Amino acid sequence: MYIDKIDDSLWDVADNFYEMQSRLERFIYNKPSCGTTWMFHCISNDRSEWYNSEYSITLKTFEELIQIYKEHGYSFKSVEQLFSGDEKSIYVTFDDGFRELASGVLSISKEYSIPICVFITADYIGKENYIDEIDIKRLSKEELFTIGGHTLSHPILRDISYDAAKKEIVGSISYLEKITEKKINVFAYPYGSIATVSGKNISVLRNSEIEMAFSTLQTHNIKDEGARYFQPRVNINESVALEMIAKLKNDEIFIPEKKIFEALKNDYYKKFLLNWISKLQKGYDLHTWISNHGYKKICIWGTRGDLARKVIDSIVSNAYDYEVVALIDNNRKDEYDEERDLAIINSEEISENVDLIVVIPGYDIDIIRDQANRNNKNKMIGINELVN
């Protein structure tokens, strides 16, 4: 069973990790498909509400996607029916709990009879742009809706202790059961890749009353008991959905981009990912690097992700011989506005008062440098450049 390959001991050796990924990929693609699980996050026709275009889609495109797949003979099923599906079965899931679920998505679900599974992060409940407890209770009573757990605070589970991870998982399930007055039997891992979920995390689910858990592996689902607690899901955003619609109109099959596996086949990204994880596990010492280079005033720009949050938290909560003049944290779930943040970065206040601008994670540092003003171009460095 492929999930048993996710063993913490493998993380000490990069080659073993890479081989584990390769075996997992081959295993999945050699197995018969029982359908595909679609993964959505933010959904709104108002793009100003999108926190990140990679995880956002308009209601209009979402509805068009549903329409064309139904017209081409695909059947939409609830996640509880996953093992009984075939290659033309589709399971629709939403992560985090954005507010449009209780209005626009609910209307589309009813109009087209589409089962929806919502994986809710407990700490987001009631916050701006997210559903509240009343919405959750109402959705849980809808015949087509399933409520699932998604931890309390959306951490990288592999990056915290076993007890802390168990509290995140079990606590979120208990909280949702209290709200819905129903048993919660499905779960989705935050981030959901091999890099962010450990075998110990999976064992918590196996030893609970949860019947199925979902990852973010970009491939179809498989009928294998070993996959019950790490079923793949395909991330769909506006651009991916439009590509899927265009291909289906031409009777072409959409094959999801295998981001994780393709990245690992590329030596640069493989090295970055493995080094980054290794340094985080050992306690990445960004502070010494900054001090050794004589920087006194820095700006931190966390463009996305809990990796950025981990570094940022450690910087702002400790005293060092440099000053964090500005902290631009785009890890918030309520918005994502690169243009706005670049304007802040390029402002006179930042340009004239900082020695260094650290972009986390910085994989797009070259693009960002091109958009920076003359004063800032040579001050910018991406965390990925420090890791490699």
TrEMBL record:
Keywords: Signal. It comes from the Bacteria. InterPro entries: Glyco_hydro/deAcase_b/a-brl, NODB_dom, Polysacch_Deacetylase. Residues 88-287 form the NodB homology domain. GO terms for molecular function: hydrolase activity, acting on carbon-nitrogen (but not peptide) bonds. The keyword Signal applies. PANTHER family: POLY-BETA-1,6-N-ACETYL-D-GLUCOSAMINE N-DEACETYLASE, PTHR34216. This is NodB homology domain-containing protein.
